[in-house]
Amino acid sequence: MWLLGGLVLGVLLIGWLIYSSYAPLWSATSDLERSFASAPPRPVVVEELVRRAEADPPDRQAVEPAIRAALALAASERASAPADLFARAGYIAARYGTADQAATLLEKGAGSRLAQLSLGIGALALRSGDFVAAREAFERATREHPESADAWTRLGTCLLQLGLPYDSINALERAAGLAPRDADVAADLAEAYSQASRLADALAAYKRAAALEPENLEWTARVAATQARLAVTDSELEEADRALSQAIEASPGSLYLLLHRAGLRLRRGMPQEARSDFETALRLEPRARAAWHNLAIACERMGDSAAAEVAHKRFRELTTQSVGLVKLRREELRRPNDARVKLRLAQALHAAGRSREAFAILSRAAELAPDDREIQGLLEVARRYFQEANQPAPGSPSGPFGGLR
Predict the structure, then answer these.
(1) Is 50 exposed, middle or buried (0-12, 13-18, 19+ CB in 10 A)?
(2) What angle do CA 204, 205, 211 make, to 5 degrees?
(3) Which of 10, 92, 313, 397 is packed most tightly, with the most Cβ within 10 A?
(4) For residue 394, is pLDDT > 70?
């Protein structure tokens, strides 16, 4: 009997120790409204929350408490923590929190040598549309931490967004070598191959992603779409059409799948079906430039010259806009400290419906030229627009931000 009583007492003691160790953590996780004003959290509690939030996969319930606890610790004059902890929390905030939260924590972590500091700075720049600053931060992360798959992945996807697929391939191949079981990395590499017209490599990489995550319908869809682009014979084209249709049934409203099936049906000599898919896709994304061009071809093959001319006209407008953006991007890279170049780029981005990117570029122009009344005035207009809009509609010509057009 005394043995049984001892065991019970031991179990109770262990339970009390576990509870006393994790009670602050459970409290921080469950009570998101706690301000920590009277007693800032201990670094060990913040460390545990951050560890859970940055796990793979992350503990989503720990993300917001980790950010809030780190901010409370950063604001406290009575508590201190290593810069590494704030750098890690800042990277989490850059991905899941607000820009202000991320900026505060990353500034507090400025002395850290961890990859998360550069990655957080890059992720924050990427969110604001400043791809050049993001690229610089991610490149710094890969130089300082060449063993980080996350750093190479972030750099590769940033280069893709800058329209540099060949450079992106080099970075993403490094990432895939460091993280061979990561389906997202495999899919990112596949996209880079696809943009570089290396379709066989893209198909192999998408199949690898689908094998790693068979429940992910997106990877299955990408396999079907890439097979459609590679199809040559009538039987291959028919099979690809069937696979795309099945994928669309599983993911209705997918712009990606609709455009690929439309293109495939145009190749198969089915202009009416292709036109229907292109029109559906353009209702989802009116700025899909290639879709307007292919819609015009489908209309011509159906004998509808009036509709074809409308589609051609819109395609030409978007092409002119796209070429202008590319030229301005290149000019910005050559003259990174020229505020007027950044102003023209911001205006072009806004006209293209990319007002968040425009705002980031315009903000940088304002920093470079604090005495330029035009730039400062437009920045104030843009800032008011985003502050006043309950549901921001970047690029809306009717909004106050229309002054950037």
Answers:
(1) buried
(2) 90
(3) 92
(4) no
Return all residues near 299 (Cβ < 8 A) that are at least 6 apart: 271, 275, 305, 307, 308, 311
Contact 341, 332 (CB under 8 A): yes
CATH number corresponding to 129-215 = 1.25.40.10
Q: Tens digit of pLDDT for each residue in 280-325?
A: 999 999 999 999 999 999 999 999 999 999 999 999 999 999 999 9
Residue by residue, DSSP assigns 118-181 as HHHHHHHHHHTT-HHHHHHHHHHHHHH-TT-HHHHHHHHHHHHHTT-HHHHHHHHHHHHHH-TT
Helices in 196-254 by DSSP H: which ranges?
199-212, 217-230, 234-250
Q: Enumerate the H helices of 231-304 as residue ranges.
A: 234-250, 255-267, 271-284, 289-302
Domain spans of the chain, in order of start: 25-112, 129-215, 231-319, 334-389+398-405
Asked whether this chain's domains 129-215 and 231-319 adopt the same fold, the reply is yes
Question: What H or E segment, with its residue span, contains residue 387?
Answer: helix 373-388
DSSP 54: T
Cα separation, 291 vs 184, whole angstroms: 27
Q: Rounded distance, CA 140 to CA 155, Å?
A: 10
**What's the rounded Cα separation, in Å, for the pair 236 and 377?**
57
CB 171 within 8 A of CB 185: no
How many CA atoms within 13 Å lie on the side-chain side of 390? 0
Q: List the end-to-end C-alpha distance of the chain, in Å, as a whole number.
A: 85
